[in-house]
């Protein structure tokens, strides 16, 4: 559990998800205030390139494509990331 992707020679799958912005916690997400697709696409490409530069093998999805994703979590730990919550 304390080894990196490089240590175990793992492949990092990077799934491009275009997140919508919402004005408040009560408001529904909307495309109205979202960035144009070119901005998150550039950030996604930059993220994948940075991983590759570190020597990580990266498998990517297709930005703005309809994708069906199935996920199986394996391992002793699930890491939750949420900037607004404390666990």
Characterize the structure shown:
The chain starts with a helix and ends in a 27-residue tail after the last strand. The protein has helices at residues 5-8, 38-53; strands at residues 11-14, 57-60. It has 87 residues and is α+β, with helices and mostly antiparallel strands. The model has no long low-confidence stretch (mean pLDDT 77).
Q: Count of helical segments? A: 2
Q: DSSP strand (E) fraction?
A: 5-15%
Q: What structural class results from the helix and strand content?
A: alpha+beta
Q: Which runs of at least 5 residues are low in confidence (pLDDT < 50)?
A: none
Please summarize the sheet with the most strands: 2 strands, parallel
The N- to C-terminal Cα distance equals 20 Å
Q: Give the C-alpha Rg.
A: 16 Å
- Quaternary structure classification: single chain
Please give the number of β-strands: 2
Q: Could you estimate the helical fraction of the residues in percent? A: 10-25%
Global outline = globular
Mean pLDDT: 77
Spatial strand order of the main sheet: 1-2
Q: H/E series, N to C? A: HEHE
